[in-house]
TrEMBL record:
UniProt-listed Pfam families: Lipase_GDSL_2
PANTHER family: THIOESTERASE 1/PROTEASE 1/LYSOPHOSPHOLIPASE L1 (PTHR30383)
The protein, known as: SGNH hydrolase-type esterase domain-containing protein
Stored InterPro entries: Ester_Hydrolysis_Enzymes (IPR051532), SGNH_hydro (IPR013830), SGNH_hydro_sf (IPR036514)
Highest taxon of source: Eukaryota
Domain SGNH hydrolase-type esterase: 13-167
């Protein structure tokens, strides 16, 4: 099994914390300092490997630029791009880390009001991203913001310090192991212009519509695999018209 941790400069120094032999899968770590959600999406066409699991940590540089709604649209577009180049991949989205004071800035305490508003917005982004992952079913969510980050950020108030890198790496380690061990493999078959979802316990599952569109574009008569979390509390119909799905693209 091949996994990828990809993101902005927040993950730049995690290799030393995630390069041991405790994983039973191969892990690549790729950092693009300064990356936004949309610029990271453009990097996937150049990646030579195809991955089974992709954990994405990006969005820090979008938080102060875009609205929550626009950021969610960009996350959806990023997911579609990942699936375009990794059709069998499961995607884990990581929450954004809250900000602290930039101690390199003169009179940094004057930014307290702005910092409070920004961190409030980051909470809204993380909540919306978590809901997106829950609703889409084919995506997983990694929460790295539940713990207070006081004492875990560098003097710039943005990037993690040594303790922060260890904390972030620990979060990602648990997320990979938990998602892989609890994920449920189901098969998506396209037969006679309709989708039929086959699972071991005959329950219906809801998959990302965008993901199915990407697969259709790659191969109209497809047989593809997805990993998804079981959510038995709600049942969804499993048959979709081929034309109706394509109209949503």
């Amino acid at each position: 099994m091949k996994c990828l941790l990809i993101g902005d400069s927040m993950i730049k120094y995690l290799k030393e914390h995630l390069s041991d032999n405790s994983f039973d899968f191969d892990l690549d770590i790729i950092s693009y300092p300064g990356a936004t959600i949309e610029s990271l999406a453009r990097k996937f066409s150049a990646l030579k490997s195809c991955y089974d699991w992709v954990l994405v940590h990006v969005g820090t540089n979008n938080a102060s630029l875009d609205s929550v709604e626009v950021i969610l649209q960009k996350y959806r577009s990023l997911a579609n791009t990942i699936l375009l180049y990794n059709p069998d991949a499961s995607i884990i989205f990581s929450s954004i880390v809250p900000r602290g004071f930039n101690l390199f800035q003169e009179d940094y305490r004057k930014t307290a009001f702005h910092l409070k508003d920004l961190n409030k917005k980051i909470v809204e982004i993380n909540d919306a991203l978590k809901k997106l992952c829950f609703d889409q079913e084919a995506f997983f969510f990694c929460s790295c913001s539940n713990t207070s980050w006081d004492g875990y950020l560098g003097r710039d108030g943005l990037h993690p310090n040594k303790r922060g890198n260890a904390l972030l790496a620990s979060c990602f380690r648990r997320s990979f192991k938990s998602c892989i061990s609890t994920g449920k493999k189901i098969s998506l078959n396209c037969v006679g212009g309709a989708f039929h979802l086959d699972s071991q316990n005959s329950q219906h599952y809801h998959l990302s519509l965008q993901a199915m569109v990407v697969l259709l574009c790659l191969n109209r008569s497809c047989h593809a695999s997805f990993w998804t979390q079981t959510r038995p509390t709600q049942t969804y119909g499993a048959n979709f018209s081929l034309n109706s799905i394509l109209c949503q693209a």
